[in-house]
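Standup notes
- DV: blocked on the single-chain target, sequence here:
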Amino acid sequence: MKISRKKHTTLLLLLSVALIITGIQASCSIEDPPETVDNGSTMTSHTMTAPTSSTTTPSSETTIPSPKPSEKLPKLEGAVALTFDDGPGAHTGRLLDALKEYDAKATFFVVGRVACENEDNMALIKRMVDEGHEVANHSYSHFDFLKISDSAVLKQISKTNETIASITGKIPTLLRPPYGNFDNRVTQLAKQEGLAIVLWTPSPEDWRYKDVDYVCNFMLDYIEAGNIFLLHDVHKTTVDGVIKALPVLAERGLKLVTVSELFDLQPGDVHPASWGGGGE
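- DV (later): unblocked, structure below
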């Protein structure tokens, strides 16, 4: 049976795409155990209490490191950066639908291993970029960078950058360390990889308080122009809370943009200088 040139070309393209997807997914299964390191003596830390809403129990104090963060001024007035960690997840598609409806942009700090574990997740990552969102680095396996060696940190960062670039064609410029844990060593390693470290100002600790109304009310109570707001799109309650808050934020005239649209961050920067803790 003869196959037309057009059909032959189509088959080759489909095969190429399948091989690329297979290659990306195969790389997901490769993971060396982290090399541990004791960094306690070199870490500078201070304690902050995240803002709380009357709708739930106040947050506990969180000890956080603070290696010379920089305070940048927003490039835009009346704008906020919503950021989402740990995804993509089962509810990310609904979140993207809602953001699109309100012409809102966000920054997704994705876990590399999660990003490439199946075709649906890879499609979500691609969709984020196609719809104007920013995809950033949240490590490959969500290891605490303060507990692993330099080479292990670099591997966590570089492998995630490679994974994101293979899906989107774009190399991330922003890193959020797992749990918000970092020190001067991690900052320098991030700079070496061309990344700025992005923390956050308010967070409802939505990974702890899984309540739709609480997430929504916290957003409406604490979002202000210039904020970098931390959320987690892997939780249904978070996505539902964000969807509930979006029309109110739109009525207030707040513009939701990506971190890079809001701030001019360079490799080695740590921003914001004053932040709320409560990360995961």
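- Follow-up: The radius of gyration is 19 Å.
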